[in-house]
Amino acid sequence: MSLRKYLTSRVFFVQVLIAIAIIAALGYLFMHWLTFTTDHGHEIEVPNLSKLTEEQVEEKLDELDLDYVLLDSVDYRSDFPQYSVVEQDPTPGTKVKVGRKIYIKINTSGFSSVRIPELVNKTYREAVPTLKALGLEEGSVTYVPNLGKDMVLEMRFKGRNLKAGDRVLKSSKIDLVLGDGKMSYEEEEKAADTLAAPIEEEIPVDEQ
pTM to 2 decimals? Predict the structure, then answer.
């Protein structure tokens, strides 16, 4: 039989149909196997782990066949309990596969301390960014007569004077005493001389 007759014969078409059926069956079985191995269609909604302890996280995720990884701790946040979850990835409500790892960050036990920088004789505009960069907050601002307008004269915390090198907890509010710029140079010198002048004590004369 010639090739042309074979390609147009009934036998050839039957064989083509059989081959197509086999390929379709193999394709179906492969997709079914792929769906089974990847657990396609069976997804879990990530729960909200915010403010839970690590033990509570482990218990909750075990019930859902999920796992977790503790990435790190973050600077203390007063609106979260100590050692509780502050951040998580994926976020709550995300659909994930069984066994997916949830990455968490927890709150520390409290504020860490920082050293007070030298702010005396700095301007107000210089002092505030410096405080914020260290995790401190600006407290009350008081003005007193002084030649230097908006110049830091004193730093205070809860009523006590601070000096450079003193330690306070992060997020503490530092009160600043600033010059109002209204005292003249002569007045400032006079005030300084008055404070520096020795006090002469009068000695009573015994009556004869």
Answer: 0.49
